[in-house]
Design a protein that fits this description.
Blueprint lengths: L1 E3 L2 E3 L1 E7 L2 E6 L5 H5 L6 E2 L15 H4 L3 E4 L5 E11 L2 E7 L4 E4 L5 E5 L4 E4 L5 H4 L6
Parallel strand pairs: 6-11
Antiparallel strand pairs: 1-2, 1-5, 3-4, 6-7, 7-8, 8-9, 10-11
Length: 135
C-alpha cells in the first residue's frame, strides 16, 4: 500500500521510463485517472520501504539528527529538512534552513542513525554562507 494525498492505493506495478518511476495502481485504469495523480508525492509506510545498501539513507531518516563537526564536536544544529536541486546534490536543511549542507561524502563523514548523529567536516565559510538576511 502507498498513500497519495492521504488516499490509499495498492501498487500493482512499478517500472522506470527515461529515469522516471512509472506507477500502476489498482483501480487507476485510464490515462485521465492517472493524470490526476501525476506529480503527487507517493508515500510508503516505513515498514514497507526497501532496505537500502550500506551507506545509503532515506532523507526522511535524517530529519532530527544532530549535526556535529568532526574533531571539535561543536554542534552545527539539527537536520530539519532537505532540498532537491535537480542534478545537484541534495541540500540538508539545518535549523530550519539557516544552514544548507550538501549531501556529499566529502562533507558528511559519519552518519549514525541509531545515535541520531551526523559528523561533518564543513568547508570553510559554509556556516556563514547562509547566515545573511533572507530574501
Amino acid at each position: 500500500m502507498v498513500y497519495i494525498s492521504g488516499a490509499r492505493y495498492e501498487l500493482e506495478q512499478l517500472w522506470y521510463h527515461k529515469g522516471q518511476p512509472i506507477f500502476k495502481f489498482r483501480g487507476v485504469d485510464s490515462i485521465g485517472d492517472a493524470e490526476k495523480l501525476a506529480g503527487q508525492e507517493v508515500c510508503v509506510p516505513v515498514s514497507e520501504r526497501f532496505e537500502l545498501p550500506e551507506g545509503e539513507y532515506y532523507y526522511s531518516d535524517l530529519i532530527g539528527c544532530r549535526m556535529v563537526e568532526c574533531g571539535s564536536g561543536e554542534m552545527v544544529g539539527t537536520v530539519t529538512g532537505w532540498q532537491e536541486c535537480g542534478g545537484a546534490p541534495v541540500l540538508l536543511e539545518v535549523n530550519g534552513g539557516d544552514i544548507l549542507v550538501p549531501f556529499a561524502a566529502a562533507i558528511l563523514k559519519n552518519i549514525d542513525l541509531a545515535a541520531r548523529r551526523i559528523e561533518v567536516d564543513l568547508p570553510e565559510g559554509l556556516k556563514d554562507l547562509n547566515s545573511g538576511s533572507r530574501v
